[in-house]
Amino acid sequence: MKKTAATEISFTTKGYRQALVLAKTSRKKIFIDAYATWCGPCRQLQKTTFKDAKAAAYFNKNFINLAIDIEKGEGTDLAKRWKIEALPTLLILDEKGNIIADHVGYVDGNGLIEFAKQASVR
């Protein structure tokens, strides 16, 4: 685990299929950050929201976190499957890969936690 894991959301680098396996074995939902490198609000999320200590603690404890560049690798197919039309798109998936919540656009740390909590009651 990275040294900064306690102060920022720790995203797995293992890919979507492995995130599904981790979600099933750990009984956690999956948090997806669908982004593109040219997207300003996406970069803002990475610089601020994902480094918010409260958000990091909440997401690292309760989710398998996966950031996906929708213009590279598996991201292109996943963007089509999830019908992503705007960025950033934040998704919460169940352990089977079904979307249970989505949010489009920038959100701060408190807003991100609230989004996740609302998804948990669905």
From TrEMBL:
PROSITE patterns: THIOREDOXIN_2 (PS51352)
Protein name per Swiss-Prot or TrEMBL: Thioredoxin
GO molecular function: protein-disulfide reductase activity
GO BP term (any one): cell redox homeostasis
UniProt xrefs under PANTHER family: THIOL:DISULFIDE INTERCHANGE PROTEIN DSBD
UniProt source species: Flavobacterium macacae
Domain Thioredoxin: 1-121
